[in-house]
């Protein structure tokens, strides 16, 4: 059976408070049903969703064309339009990603720890779903499917609030995901899409801590700051990715050149791309002119401190704001530092606690850097681009958290769970 794509508008939802309450209540009820679902049912849903995406590709692509046609009205640049655009190959990639989630182990019910007490009580620490996830994300329609897959596989109901630029594409995917839930006997309201782009609806959801277990914002800094300020439930935040690469005095400079270019240029618009380069003074005169030539080949704008500026032809002076900025573009800030501690101090001042890397052959220096730098991922002699769920062997991810509680770094299936204690007795009472 085909589910019609029903595009709602704000005008059709005059009472946002009641609407958001109903959505949250349905999600909470669905979460109770998911808690009793087997891993096999959830995997069958993933397979059925992949099957429907393949068979209904024309429907999804037609909806996507509506979004592409409206992209100029939203001021999207070429890169943003490319992220928004769906193609047959990209649809196949989305379906394949669902099947890859099937292959991941089911975290629900996993025994994290266990022990038998002297009085005979058996105490188990068991992984359980969080409950209801409110997920707010940017205008990439594949994220609708990725987030739903991870949430349902980990036993959570999810309320999806995508960007207005992908509204029609998201609706098409949502219709398929919900149909597949019904086909395999799972609660259809386990996945819900917010059917309005009105920002006021977000505020109503953020006040429903009695229904929603956690909010995960994935988007620009302004969105995340708003969610953090207004949410009445826990938030797993993904702030800026102001990532650093430090080239130590003991670095292999050829290795450093490759790592810096990959960290900055492989995909400059993503959160784990390097935004700042720190170089030890002892290697600056040798390394920085070589680095400048490599950056010039890649059309990277170099914003340099006073000490690095003369060593990098074509560079411009850096401001303090440049060292704090997440450029998400072919731009990088560069600073010469006196020693390892100066690099650590600079990172402490300007980092967003996402990803930092050191290039060095000095074991003591790498150990000190790893111990002193307080970021979600600290990398030795490799690109910052490796801070990713797939690259870390975690499978798919819903985002990269810069928080320290409850999840940090790539958030996959296990990060979408909590735990509870199960205690088995045989009539014991406490004396």
Automatic annotation (TrEMBL):
Domain annotation Aldehyde dehydrogenase: ranges: 20-300
Keyword Ribonucleoprotein part of the UniProt annotation: no
EC number per UniProt: 1.2.1.41
Keywords: Amino-acid biosynthesis, Cytoplasm, NADP, Oxidoreductase, Proline biosynthesis
Location in or out of the cell: Cytoplasm
Reactions it catalyzes: L-glutamate 5-semialdehyde + phosphate + NADP(+) = L-glutamyl 5-phosphate + NADPH + H(+)
Enzyme class: oxidoreductase
GO cellular component, one term: cytoplasm
GO biological process terms held by the UniProt record: L-proline biosynthetic process
Function in brief: Catalyzes the NADPH-dependent reduction of L-glutamate 5-phosphate into L-glutamate 5-semialdehyde and phosphate. The product spontaneously undergoes cyclization to form 1-pyrroline-5-carboxylate.
Assigned protein family: Belongs to the gamma-glutamyl phosphate reductase family.
Stated name of the protein: Gamma-glutamyl phosphate reductase
Source organism per UniProt: Symmachiella macrocystis
Gene name, Swiss-Prot/TrEMBL: proA_4
